[in-house]
Amino acid sequence: MAATSMALSSSLVTPTVAASKSGFQGVAVRVSHVPMMAKSNNHRNLTIVAATKKAVAVLKGTSNVEGVVNLIQEDDGPTTVNVKITGLTPGKHGFHLHEFGDTTNGCISTGPHFNPKGKTHGAPGDEIRHAGDLGNVVAGQDGVVEVTLTDDQIPLSGPTSVVGRAFVIHELEDDLGKGGHELSSTTGNAGGRLACGVVGLTPN
Prior knowledge:
By secondary structure, the protein is an all-beta fold. It has strands at residues 4-7, 13-20, 23-31, 52-59, 66-74, 79-86, 91-98, 104-107, 133-139, 145-151, 166-170, 193-198, 200-202. The chain contains no helices and 13 strands. A hairpin with a 4-residue loop joins strand 5 (66-74) and strand 6 (79-86). It comes from Pogonatum inflexum. Residues 65-199 form the Superoxide dismutase copper/zinc binding domain. This is Superoxide dismutase [Cu-Zn].
């Protein structure tokens, strides 16, 4: 019997089946080489722009104490806090960020100090501190505080963002957790809450 060939059509592979008196003899495969496509050199240059975030809190209370706190953060860097408060008695006053932006029952409903890591109260520079522990601000003889603080635990975005929380100015000096009072480890024994304000984002 004459040999029989069968061509299987393909753009890449052309097999040939050969048969003889002894039966099936195997399959021969011819592979056609396809040229590689050249890589494109059209790369786009990416420019990374640092994101500036801004926020503000307007402090109000039942007394004549009031103020404005402006916050600014460049990219993921520390947050700069510009504080101006009027109507205070001269001297040191505890200044903290509290957990809730709720002022329905006055400043008391802002809750405890913002403390996402579950630590005890301390000074701003301490390793063990609440994120909201910003220490003391000092009012002059005119009752005015005007100061700029920088802190890396109060970001304006992310899971520990301070947006929607509240700043509180207190009646007394914060003992920074070192006063030996029963409230030292929670509030710094800083006394009553004179004024508070909820943090909200502002246009850049």
